[in-house]
Model the fold of this input.
Amino acid sequence: MRVAIFGTGYVGLVTGTCLAEVGHDVVCVDIDQAKVDGLGRGIIPIYEPGLEPMVKANHAAGRLAFTTDAAAGIAHGQVVFIAVGTPPDEDGSADLQYVLAVARTIGRHLTQPMVVVNKSTVPVGTADKVRAAIAEALAARGEEITFDVVSNPEFLKEGDAVADCMRPDRIVIGASNPEAVAVLRRLYAPFNRNRDRVVEMDVRSAELTKYAANAMLATKISFMNEIANIAERVGADIEQVRQGIGSDPRIGWHFIYPGAGYGGSCFPKDVQALARTASQYGHQPHLLDAVEAVNNAQKGHLFALIQRHYDRGEDEGVRGKTFAVWGLAFKPNTDDMRAAPSRRLLEQLWEGGAIARVYDPEAMNEARRIFGEREDLVFCDSAYEALDGADALVVVTEWKQFRSPDFERLRKALGDAVVFDGRNIYEPQEIEAAGLAYYGIGRGRSL
Ligand code: NAD
Done:
C-alpha cells in the first residue's frame, strides 16, 4: 500500500521504516528540512537500535522516501499518518498545534478519498478536531472529498522501538467506519500473522487507551519510589522488597524498579495531560496528581542523598566538588534526554557549586545541544575518563556497560571514594568491600 507519514521523529520514522520493511511504499514528510536532507543521505537523527540499516536498505530499495513537500506526500498516500509531537502546553494539557497544522495541510492538499490515521498521543476528542480541521480546509477550497479519521495510538518503547513495531503486543484501532478498519487491517497484516493482535474499538476509547497505558506504567514506577522512600526511613532494602513482590504474578516483575524518577517524552507529559483532561471533565484525578508529585520529588532524591553525605563531613556541601555522572539519557538504549532525571541532577549540582564530568554512550551530542559549553561541565569520551579528578560517582542511567565496573579502579580514582547509585545496579556489599561508600535508592542501610 502507499503510505504517507507526517512527522519523522521516534514514532514516525520507526513506523515508516517498519512499514517499508514489509513492502509498503512509504513517503515520510517533515517540516524540518535539515532532518529530511540528512535522512535522504542516510543520516539518522536519533539513536534507535537496529534502525539505521533498515532505513538505509529501504531507502535504497525505493520503498522509503523523505520529503518536506506535503502535497506530494498526500498525493502519494492511500493512508496518511499523523505522527507529530504533542508536547505539554503551559497548563500541562497536550499542545495540539502540530497535529492540527497537519490536519489543515491534509485538507488543503487532499485530492482523493483518504484514511487519516492519528498516531500521536492526543486527548480524547482530538479525532473530532482533526476531522473538523480537514473539513474546514476542504470547504475553503470548495471541495467535497470523503475521508475517515482513525485513532491508532503507538505503544513502541524508545530503545526497543524497531522490535516493538515489527512485533507489536497489540494494534489498537479506534474507528467508526468498518471500511477504515479494513484498510488498516490490510496495512498491518504483515505484523499480525500468528495471532490477531488488532483490538478494535471506538475512537474515544482508543485515544484514552494510550493515556491509560502510560499512566499505569508511570503509576507503578511512582508506587515503587514511594515504597523505596519508606524503605529508606525504616531501614529496609527496596531491592529485597522488589524480589518479594515481583514473584506475585498479579504484580509481575516489570516496571517495579525504584530509581531517580521517570523521564522521557511520554510519561511526564501524558500523566499531566490525562490529569488535565480529567479536570476539564469535572473529575479530580487524585491518583494521577500523586503519581506526578511523587515523580517530581524523586527527581531531586539523588541530589538529596548527595547533599546529606556532604553535609555530614567537613565539606561545605558540594561546593568545589567534582562529580562523575554516568548516564544522561532518560533510560538506556536511547539518546533521548527529554525530561531526563539527569537534567535535574546536573542543575542541582551546578546550583550547589559542583563540577560535572559526564558520559553517556549515546546522548553526548544531545547533551551538548542542550547545555552548550559551560565551565562546570566536562564532556568525557568514556565512563572511566569521567572519573579522572572526580570526587564521587553518580549513576543516573542503567546502561549495561556501567553494571560491572572495576571497583578497585573506582576507589583509586574517586577523591572521596563514594558512589551514588540512582538505579540500584550495584550490590552495596561488593562496593563497600572495595572500600567505597555506597548510596542507593530505598536501601535503608545506606542512611
Ligand atoms: P518527535 O518530536 O521525535 O518527532 C516529531 C516530528 O514531527 C519532528 O521531526 C517534527 O519536525 C515533525 N513535525 C512537526 N510538525 C510537522 C508538520 N506540520 N508536518 C510534518 N512534520 C512535522 O516526536 P515523537 O517522539 O516521535 O512523538 C510523536 C507522537 O507520538 C507524540 O504524540 C508522542 O507522545 C507519541 N508517542 C511517542 C513515543 C516515543 O517513545 N517517543 C511512543 C508512543 C507515542
